[in-house]
Amino acid sequence: MRFEYDTERRIIAWTDTNDRRYDYVYDQNDRVIAEGGTEGHISVRIDYGPADERTGHRVTTVTTPEGHATRYLVNHRCQVIAVTDPLGHTTHTHRDRHGRILSRTDALGRTTGYTYDTAGRPVTVTAPDGSRQTASYNALNLPLETTGADGTVWRYTYDERGNRTTATDPLGNTTRYTYDDHGHLTSVTNSLGDTTRVRCDPAGLPVEITDPLGATTVYHRDAFGRPTAITDPLGATTRMEWTIEGKPLRRIAPDGTEQSWAYDGEGNAIAHRDASGGLTTYEYTHFDLLAARTDPDGARYEFTYDTRLRLTQVTNPQGLTWTYTYDPTGRTLSETDFDGRTLTYAHDPTGRLVSRTNPLGQTVSLERDVCGRIVRKDADGQATTFTYDPAGRLTEAIGPEVALTYRRDRMGRAVAEVAGDRVLTRTYDALGRIVRRTTPSGAKSTFAYDAAGRRTTLTTCGQTLDFAYDMRGRETARRFGDTSLAQIWDPAGRLSEQTLIGPSGDIAQHRAYTYRPDGHLAGIDDHLRGHRDFDLDEAGRVTAVRAENWTESYAYDEAGNQTHATWSTDHHQDTTGARVYTGTRITRAGRVRYEHDAAGRLTLRQKTRLSHKPDTWHYTWDAENHLTTVTTPDGTTWRYLYDPLGRRTAKQRLARDGKTVVEQVDFTWDGNTLVEQTTTTPDVPDPVSLTWEHDGFRPLTQTERTTDATTQREIDRRFFAIVTDLAGTPTELVDDTGHIAWRPRTTLWGATTDDRTGLTHTPLRFPGQYADPESGLHYNHHRYYDPTTARYTTPDPLGLTPAPNPVAYVLNPHRWIDPLGLAPYEGNPFEPWADERPDGEEVIAGHGVIAAGDGTPARVPEGTSVVMYSYHGEPLYEMDLRAIIAGRPHMEVKEVYGPGELLPDYELHPPDGLELQGSPIITEKNPVRLSFMLDPNMGRVHWAACRSVHPMEE
């Protein structure tokens, strides 16, 4: 960084290491009156008004070159007490004589109040609805009690040095901490008495963590505290090298494969080389904004910004553009996608989203309460209302088709969820883990865990599964009756073998997996299917599947769309051959043609037949992109119903009159996981239920039960254990005698031919997907997936944030999953999940954001450090957040801000829509700045939220 000074020794310009320059102009009073980059970036004119003789207040006006003015009312202590944005909306801040904020009133007149004790510590926060949160402190200024808006109390104790020794939740469950003579953490004992032991170096950083079962992870650190080697409990070591600035330089996996990074002088990553040698390069423009990314296959994405540093255009490798427009305050007014479709947005004076209109003119409008929570949603005339408890947790949601009600315990956990007339109940242990669940059909499941938090026993519908794990927590054995499934892992933590052993000791199934250096699957040796090899391109996409009597081939364009596909004649050949696109819309695949509406949603699929008229499917959608009806070639109509959270709760086959329901399938959800379906049809006199148990999104069991429609008495039951592949997709159903009852033939992208030699099957497909035979699609929570084209039938509702191709499925289905139909996730479905970090360190969790151009800093207090798992401007996804909360070692630390260091003052929003639980997690019911959440002596705090830079929207 270079600085220039004038004769008055004032800084008049700085130039960074990428030769980006920023200038300042002063008046005769040494005040900056203008500043900006050489190409107009963040250019402003600053006018200082005179002081009011009566109040001493003055107005400072900051004006952009476009004429957009923001006005700051400054008191006689030089504190900003009101801000008026370019649209005339004003936020007021009231301070006491010590400069502490007493209240903040937003542009809608909603006031949040703060009170302090005589030592200046915040003791109450009063929300606009009158709800209050309170805190009390000890002589060391550390919180002794915090009381939530719902009256729940957390209590803390400390030793004489200020180290926290206990934390007691509102139910009386206590976590205990011990320290050595230097104040370093030595153990964490949860409320069940399970102890994790920690050994720290002289700087207080963990160098050994031993879980309650004795498994030890060892950390070797350099002089700056950065880990240079991590050795897991089985002796596998991952090594890291760092730049002087603390950024990752090389990462060497236990199997010797390595990744490397390179940076420019500003610390921006300019290159990443993966373990197979694939090179991704990055280019930057003003203020370290990403200008271009070139992937290993040469695909190049370019990014354009305006002078306010707002993203205005993304250009994909095909030259298609996605553009954004903003209002004078920086809020997004519209976005126009790669196909020229425009979504428009409207906001209230505080910047909250109040409506979204799609290209068809369908509008979703939102109404909020004084705390900013959505209380009513109108989706093109279909209304849904929401009710919350004093802590801001959802208690009731009444939609046009389904009403949801939640009953919660003192910790806010849902103990009962009522959807229409269907009730799901849960019971939790002291650590918040589910130990009992009952579905609407009456299926009961119980769960037991070991001291390390891993599930050891699952009993469902009278059948018991026992699980065993290695010291790293990976499942090595599963036993159900006299049948067992054994799993072996390689040094890099990848599944290398699965063996299904029947009651007589015979091998019923065996699979061995081989991998490329970068972790992509290269081959499977399957006892029942034979050997398969996979060819991949430079981007990691599978181009060929080669096996005896079985081949598949795929070609892709530079944006990742399939351009050609072929597979074995065991599957329907209608969609094999070339794919044709208009923009991102697929119009033809083989003998099938497609039509879409103006919002990019599939409305027609038509299959050409040589000697008959075409088979045609029609699809209709609502304003929220829910598929509402499907009409099949024989004229049958299926209607789909959804709850207020967007989960499909029923599908109905209608009679020829289009009204009478002749068959209905009801669905039950546990959070975002489908756990049960009940089918009522004239062909079967009694309802038939399928109940599933999962580990995350990986299914473990399926139980089929027939119950008397009148008495609810169980008539028949069939139990199946589910074996899954690397991604978590079912590959076999195994009955209680150890016999493989179902084994499908599936293409790479999920098109399935069921093995109908048996009497059962499962509709579960890729994680989070459910196959609908009537439509030919897979329901995937927020979207529907077509396995014959590896595409979704609607664009991603999150736009380009999750992935550069908003319609294609994941890059490689062996390694990536998208269980919600929202965001691809690269992860291991076999990775065990715990509900708390083994080191007991606190996690701040929710939705994180900061507005473009907001340079407000937060200073890390003494005795506290903030750990980041993404770089500034990058998102994180729900599975990432869960991994941070659980302390998963695969979550790579990107930055650590130590005591006294400055970082952007991100705003944390409530974790709406996220299934996060564990201890200790810090969340908020209203948006709160990071600076308000950090206290002295918190130790290491982990930020489990996005660091996204954009206007604050829903």
From TrEMBL:
It comes from the Bacteria. InterPro entries: Rhs_assc_core, RHS_repeat, Stv, T6SS_VgrG/RHS, TEN-like_YD-shell, YD. Residues 843-948 form the Putative adhesin Stv domain. Pfam families: RHS_repeat (PF05593), Stv (PF21527), TEN_YD-shell (PF25023). This is RHS/YD repeat-containing protein. Keywords: Repeat. The lineage of its organism: Bacteria, Bacillati, Actinomycetota, Actinomycetes, Kitasatosporales. PANTHER family: PROTEIN RHSA-RELATED, PTHR32305. It comes from Streptomyces sparsogenes DSM 40356. Residues 257-395, 533-652, 717-796 form the Teneurin-like YD-shell domain.
